[in-house]
Write a structure and sequence with these properties.
Blueprint (H helix, E strand, L loop, with lengths): L1 H19 L7 H17 L9 E3 L10 H12 L6 H15 L11 E3 H24 L1
Antiparallel strand pairs: 1-2
Length: 138
């Protein structure tokens, strides 16, 4: 029983290590998929980390803004979450690598709770994933 217990602990430690690492994929489709998946994981938990934190609202449905601008705004909004910075760092890293901009404009005039922001971000990234998949299929 002792060897199986050691193996179980080793596996648990490995899983914890892997889940704490920032996302390192290179494909935009994979990055979008992983962002969506991580949001689903956070939402399936007991409580979203720092769910009562207010962040700037991103107008994901604004057709006048490019996808890169919206991704940049989402990354900027998430950088406002200082208390749970480690939980959201993988999102920020991937969002920044997807938009490729150094800065963007984001008004703090309208704010939204993080627990409401994450599903909006998930819907947006899932939509981008689908559009990329359709373009690749053509």
């Amino acid at each position: 029983m002792l060897p199986s217990l050691k193996a179980a602990l080793a596996l648990l430690s490995l899983l914890q290590l892997i889940s704490s690492k920032p996302l390192t994929t290179t494909s935009p489709k994979l990055k979008l998929s992983e962002i969506t998946h991580r949001i689903q994981q956070l939402n399936s938990g007991v409580q979203v980390p720092c769910n009562d934190t207010r962040v700037a609202q991103v107008a994901f449905t604004d057709r006048k803004l490019s996808d890169q601008e919206l991704l940049c705004q989402a990354a900027t909004a998430l950088t406002q979450v200082k208390k749970c910075e480690k939980d959201y760092e993988p999102f920020i890293v991937n969002l920044k690598s997807l938009h490729g901009q150094t800065s963007c404009s984001l008004s703090n005039e309208n704010e939204i709770y993080l627990r409401n922001f994450l599903p909006e971000l998930g819907n947006f990234t899932q939509g981008m994933y689908r559009r990329l998949a359709m373009l690749a299929a053509q």
